[in-house]
Design goal:
570 residues, alpha/beta, Nucleotidyltransferase, domain 5, DHBP synthase, 3 domains, 9-stranded mixed β-sheet, 21 helices, 21 strands
Amino acid sequence: MNILGINFGHPDAAAILLKEGEWLVGSEEERFKRVKHWEGFPSESILFCLNSTHISFDQIDFIAVAGDVTSNFFRKILFLWQYPNHLKKTKKAFGDFSKEWERHFPDWLLADKLRFVEHHRAHLASAFYSSPFEEAMIYSVDGSGDFSTSMWGIGKGNKIKIMGKTCFPHSLGLFYTAASQYLGFHEVGDEYKVMGLAAYGKPVFFDEMLKMFQCQKDGTFTLKNEFFKWDKPLIGEDNLYGYPTIPLFFSELWKVKWGNSRRPEEELSSIHADFAASVQKVFEYILMRRLNYLAGMSAVRNLCLAGGSIQNSVAIGKIKSLTPFKNIYVPCASHDAGISLGAAQWVHFQEGKGARTAAIFHSFRGKCFNDDEIKAVCIEKKCHFQEYNMEEIIHKAVAILLSGGIIGWFQGRAEFGPRALGNRSILANPSVPNIRDKLNLVIKNREKFRPFALSVLAEYQQEYIGHSDFLPFMEQVKGINEKGLKAIGAFFHIDNTIRIQSVRKEENALFHELITSFHKESGVPALINTSFNEKEPIVHSPGDAIDCFKRTGIDFLIMGNLLIQKLDIQ
C-alpha cells in the first residue's frame, strides 16, 4: 500500500511517501521554494516523492492530508460567533485542497483516494508509530491545529487510543508565541530566540506571569482572556502563496504590567533576558504539571512527544529529571512538517491495519545529488574545485577543522525536519576560541546569544558529555560533565548546557567517520553542527550551497567528493 502524506494549510508545508508503512522519502516545500516555513500547496515536494521513488500517481492508494475541518465543529461555531472576523479569512487560508490539487495536477484525479486526518492525531501518530516503543503515553502540544492546542493518548502496538484534548484558545504554544512577540521576535519560528535568551536572565516575573493561567488539578489550564487578543485569524490570507504570517497575540495589559513591548531593532537588555527566563520557566512549569498528571494515569514510562512546542529542547531535556517518565522519543519533525508523516501513518493503520515498521532514527529522506550533478553546477557557477576520493575528503576536512576553519558540508540525502543532522551542515571545531561568536556574527548573521548544537559520537557520549540517552534529532538540551567543560567549555551556552545530537554509524556512516577521524587527531569526539543556511531555509541544492558559501564567512565548501576554497570562487 502506497500512501502520500501531506501538510497543507499550515506553515512548514510538506509531503512524504509511505510504502507498506515504511517511510521512503519526504521533503518540506520550503527547501524548493526557498521561503522559510512555506505554507502554500507543497507541489514540488509531492513531485519529488513520486519521481524519486518511480511510483506513479496511479499506484498511490491514499492521499492523507493533515487537517480535518469537521473536527471540534461546535467549539468552532461558538468561537466564530464571538469573533466573526475569523470566518471568511479562515476559509480562504485553509482553502480547498481538491481545488489546489486540480490546479497543480489537473491530470491526476483524486477519486476516492483522499483521507483527512485531524491535526493532533497526525502529531500523535508521527511520534508513536515512529518510536521504538510497543506501548507509550503520547502527548502533542503546539499553538493550534484544527482548533485543538494539545491532545493526549496511549499507543499500544498499532493502535492509538485518544484520551483527551485541549481546545483553542487555551494554548501553551500561543502563550510562548505571544511572549516572543512582546520581546520583539515577530517571525514564525522566532520562539527559538526566547529559549536561547532565557539562559541570560532570571525568572523574576514568574509569579506574575503565571497569573495568565487558570490551572486545574489535572495539569490542564485555561488562559485568562484579558491577557490575549484573538480577533485575527492565526493563518494569514495569503498563505496559499507560501509566505507565513501570524497576528500579534498579547493584549495591552502586558504593556500595563511590564511596560512597552520591545521593538525588533531595539538593543536587548537584562530586563528582556529576565522576561525570557520567566517565560521559559512558566512554559516548563505548565508542561511538567501536565506530564506528571499523565504519568499518574498509567504505569507506562515511555513517552512520545510531538507538536511545535516540543521543539523547546531546553524543556524536553528536563523531563526525565522532573517527571516519572524514563524513555522519551521525539520525531525528527515534531513541528507541522511532521504531520505529513503522521497523517500517512494514521491512514496506514486505519485502512490497512498493518504491522509496525522499524523505529525511525534518521531523517535523510530528501533529495540527493550525485557527483556529476554537483560538478555541473560548480562549472555553471564558475567555481574551481578539487576532486578527491572520500578517504582523502575526510582527511582534508579534519585538517581544515583542526586549523580552525569552518566547513560547509553537503552530502547524500537532505534531512527532513528543522535541523541539520550531518548532510546539510556547517561544521566547526568546538575547541577553537570564540568560534561561537564567529559562527553567529560572520556566518549565520544572527544574535550573539544564540547557542549551537554538538554532534557527538554515541559511543563516547556518556564519557564526554555525561549522558547516555540516544538523541539522534538534537531534540534535547543537556548539562555537561566536567570532562566536556574542561575540553570545550568556552563553546557551551552561558548556563553550561548544549543541544546534543548522538551520531551512530548505523544512521550516517560518513558523518560518523568524519567525527571519528577528528577525534583521533584532536581528542574531541564531537563537532559543532549547525544548519547550512543564513536567514533562509536549509540549503537544498548544490546551487543553494554555493550561494550561501559565497555570501558568508564559511572557509571551505565540501560537496560530495569536491572541495572548494573561497579563492576558487569567481
